[in-house]
Amino acid sequence: MGIEVGGLFGLVILVLNVWAIIKVVQSSSGTGAKVLWTVLILVLPVLGFIIWLFAGPRG
Q1: How does DSSP assign the chain, residue by residue?
Q2: Which range marks the domain in which residue 56 is found?
Q3: pLDDT in single tens digits along all 59 residues of the chain
Q4: 45 within a domain of the structure (yes/no)
Q5: Number of structural domains, the chain?
Q6: 23 belongs to a structural domain
Q7: Helix axes 45-55, 7-26, angle to 10 degrees
């Protein structure tokens, strides 16, 4: 019995990641920082979102 990310939890993760990527693109950070944050969020969906939430670009 492994841990699966699917169903409603998977949909919530997808919506939060899309929201985070939109916020990263709209931020005033440089292009390199935007690319790095976007890649982090895409490669590590749950952990990347949590890291972005606490340490990501603001504004």
Answers
A1: ------HHHHHHHHHHHHHHHHHHHHSSS-HHHHHHHHHHHHHSHHHHHHHHHHHS---
A2: 19-59
A3: 556 667 788 889 999 999 999 999 999 989 999 999 999 999 999 999 999 999 887 76
A4: yes
A5: 1
A6: yes
A7: 40
